[in-house]
Amino acid sequence: MANKPIKIALLGLGTVGTGVYKLLSMRADDMPQIAGAPIEISHILVRNASKPRSGVETALLTDNWNDIISDPEVSIVVELMGGIEPAHTYIKEALQANKNVVTANKDLIAVHGGELLDLAEEHHCDLQFEASVAGAIPIIHPLKQSLAGNRITEIMGIVNGTTNYILTRMTEDGMEFSEALAKATELGYAEADPTADIEGYDAGRKVAIMASIAFHSRVTFDDVFTEGITNIQARDIRYAKEMGKAVKLLGVACNTDEGIEVRVHPMLIPSSHPLATVNNAFNAVFVHGDALDDAMFMGRGAGELPTASAVTGDIIDTARNILMHCTGRIGCTCYKKLPIKKMEDIKSKYYLRLEVENRMGVLAGVTGVLGNNGVSISQVLQKASDTDSAELVVITDTVRERHIRDALTILSNMSMVHKIASVIRVY
Ligand SMILES: NC(=O)C1=CN([C@@H]2O[C@H](COP(=O)(O)OP(=O)(O)OC[C@H]3O[C@@H](n4cnc5c(N)ncnc54)[C@H](OP(=O)(O)O)[C@@H]3O)[C@@H](O)[C@H]2O)C=CC1
Ligand SMILES: N[C@@H](CC=O)C(=O)O
Ligand code: NA
């Protein structure tokens, strides 16, 4: 056990930074035994260093990155600011100065992860990012280490706490979307700009990070198809419930013979499916590997202390590596270049809710267009209707996405179809 403290700098003291500050204080007495040395925060970078921060030593605060990068005593830079710049520049400069890096920044890792991991390898430094995917849930470390002997073919999960919280409130309490979003923001789950959460970008970034590690082939955020939850109506959730299904925003990554499939979108899943019972801000990730079979990881995907739990684990792991002189031990594992499958080529079942003219022959017209485009139908339900219009809910069999898109283009141009109100993929 070493007595000399390992000095770290926090970049950011918002939700996650505050959590890390608290957790390191809570565990301070145990650190020499757990990490092998005391962990000392020597600097905290914030935008506004004069803003009062309760319980935090003011002397640690700075708004000047040079205080940190020029301090040779700092051996771990913990980036918790978020966004691309200046986080990207600071992390590069830290690695170039042979400082190890821990980050929770999925925006950055999902785009520049490959470049940063290469830089870390060049400088024999650790670059750890467990909190960037599914908050507290250990998933990066298991994929890189415990499951490394597998050929992983599928990952599917709920990886955004904000949207899962919103969908849960809409399902259980009939809460409006905007009210549920405001509550998620108040609880510290949502990103600084919640567009990333509700449009599926945040989940898309997490899927890109997991797919890269699981399939040993670099997947970036641009490769991921994303569709958010802003079009989900209370009536879709109600109809899903009547059919014994729940609506969840799912991230899916599959390693298929036709290429890597990476997508985020709402999905109807059977209420009996384990993911259907994952509610509020909880996240869960299913992994299928050839040796492992199935495993599910579940826990809190966002929030102050849960996210701090993952960051602190990375800090401790890095501290141990520093003391054992083995930083940079686990670097980038992307040694393949697999193609990315086009979204039009994926296969799924679909839930379609159409507002149509209320007269004889319309049902035949709609099903005819679907059939002519190779879309076979599993179920048709007529829901609400008035004198002029009726609401049709169609559940298709499994078809290629391109066939559904072609059929919907034709339907949307037919006068008997007033509106294609919802299109949701079905598990
Ligand atoms: N919130 C969560 O539950 C989770 C968040 N994450 C990720 O963790 C990271 C941090 O998120 P979160 O804590 O919610 O973010 P916050 O917005 O709550 O906090 C950001 C902090 O970074 C500081 N900061 C931002 N930009 C700069 C800059 N240019 N220079 C100096 N300081 C800066 C801010 O300073 P100031 O206080 O002066 O404004 C603030 O202290 C993000 O990458 C996020 O995606 C990951 C998992 C879960
Ligand atoms: N905004 C994110 C926070 C964690 O990554 C979420 O809601 O999951
Ligand atoms: Na995690």
TrEMBL record:
EC id: 1.1.1.3
Alphabetical keyword list: Amino-acid biosynthesis, Methionine biosynthesis, NADP, Oxidoreductase, Threonine biosynthesis
The protein's required cofactors: a metal cation
Record flagged with keyword Iron: no
Pathways involved: Amino-acid biosynthesis; L-threonine biosynthesis; L-threonine from L-aspartate: step 3/5; Amino-acid biosynthesis; L-methionine biosynthesis via de novo pathway; L-homoserine from L-aspartate: step 3/3
All copies of domain ACT, residue ranges: 351-425
Name of the protein this chain belongs to: Homoserine dehydrogenase
Organism the protein comes from: Butyricicoccus intestinisimiae
